[in-house]
Amino acid sequence: MNFALPTRRQDHQQPKMPSQPTQAQLNLAALAGSPSPRTMRSLRKIQSHQVLSSTLPQPASARSSVRPDEGSQPVLLDSPVRLRTHRRARSNSDSSSRELPAFGTQRRSARKTGSGFGIKRSILETLLRDGPQQGNIREGLQELRYLILSTRVEADADGMSSYRVYLWLALLDIPPVPTDEYLSLIHRGRSPAYTKIRNDTFRTLATDPLFKRRVTEASLIRLLNAVAWKLLDGKNKTKAKSRLSTSRRRDVERLITTPPSIAEEDSNSDRPISTNSRGSTVTSDSAIYVQGMNVLCAPFLYAARSEVEAFALFHTFITRECPGYIRGAMDGVHRGLRLVDRCLEIVEPKLASYLFAKGMQAELYAFPSVLTMCACTPPLPEVLHLWDFLFAYGPHLNILCIVAQLIRMRDTILESPSPNKILRSLPPLDAKEIIALTVLIVRKIPEPLYAELINHAK
């Protein structure tokens, strides 16, 4: 029996389209042409990122990768987020010595201290692992900052993230620290500030069960003691350079009456400051430990995967970003408190006048928040999220974050006849809301005052 395939009819007629669109088609076209709320939110986040990045100082590694003719022009991202189609092979430290077979249904086992995410990575983690395209560090940092502002670092309910510590190291431009350097500081024994450290460590975030479960008091003592030794070494080097500079100046004064011309000494040669190649600054009046450093150190130990990483983060942060906070008189902290009053007076004049009338200056209620970068206000996972924002756009924004907390409490403060009790116990942090308010406050701050914010902790 023969089967013949049916042939296509030549006279096959196509279905006729209606001459005019229906009402349903018109409605769909109208909906497709209108911008969605998600699109509008993305545009606002891009605009806020450009405002915050306009006065942001670049790290040394980013400046070195830019040619002189490109340094004067700001880098604008055509697309703040770029999806990558390639994946870099995992390093030997991330993989085991024997490769296991991969199954389609196999799931990644959750870490005890990790976040327990699935195999799929976020765009932020992918950018952090793969690095910037074409090795453009400046553009890569811009992308990291935008992603931190527009999205949240993935973490579990305890605030633990598998890549947050590496994000902080990249944003603060901190190179790897040899473990032997940290161990050598520990093996030196008790520092001169050991007694003060022991008097504070046992009450560091004492009411936070998350911190107590992950960080031991012994690790906090070791880290603070090692930092104290490191700061003491910096002070001794500063004093030695100061004595050498003074003797050289005396030699110049003795020879100044002689006929040969002598090159003029640098006007700042006798200034007792020691600055290393990474920009960290230690002065002769810097303290090796001040009260509050234990709380400022706590989030670094909580987020880091080792004490060495926490040591590198904490030491670099206090010596480079806020050296004025660890001087004997803590003049940087007091300047920050005065800036809280001035910024509040500009942003919320009614609230500021009410607090000033009650004799409530920032010196009376905001000292712990300024000194610890809001780490004294729970919950700790929200503190970590807020620090992601501060490390991306500058720790000086902590002053405006404190103003944002006061604005959140505005009605409660104005209705209270005694705001002192309210301000002594701030409400729990809501990092997302505080960051949103801070972005709005930045636009209201005059440029001269904003310049003072940037330099108040130096």
UniProtKB/TrEMBL annotation:
<dbReference type="Pfam" id="PF00566">
    <property type="entry name" value="RabGAP-TBC"/>
</dbReference>
<dbReference type="InterPro" id="IPR035969">
    <property type="entry name" value="Rab-GAP_TBC_sf"/>
</dbReference>
<dbReference type="GO" id="GO:0005096">
    <property type="term" value="F:GTPase activator activity"/>
</dbReference>
<feature type="region of interest" description="Disordered">
    <location>
        <begin position="1"/>
        <end position="23"/>
    </location>
</feature>
<feature type="region of interest" description="Disordered">
    <location>
        <begin position="255"/>
        <end position="280"/>
    </location>
</feature>
<feature type="region of interest" description="Disordered">
    <location>
        <begin position="50"/>
        <end position="115"/>
    </location>
</feature>
<dbReference type="GO" id="GO:0044732">
    <property type="term" value="C:mitotic spindle pole body"/>
</dbReference>
<dbReference type="GO" id="GO:0031030">
    <property type="term" value="P:negative regulation of septation initiation signaling"/>
</dbReference>
<protein>
    <submittedName>
        <fullName>TBC-domain-containing protein</fullName>
    </submittedName>
</protein>
<feature type="compositionally biased region" description="Polar residues">
    <location>
        <begin position="50"/>
        <end position="64"/>
    </location>
</feature>
<dbReference type="InterPro" id="IPR000195">
    <property type="entry name" value="Rab-GAP-TBC_dom"/>
</dbReference>
<feature type="domain" description="Rab-GAP TBC">
    <location>
        <begin position="158"/>
        <end position="394"/>
    </location>
</feature>
<feature type="compositionally biased region" description="Polar residues">
    <location>
        <begin position="270"/>
        <end position="280"/>
    </location>
</feature>
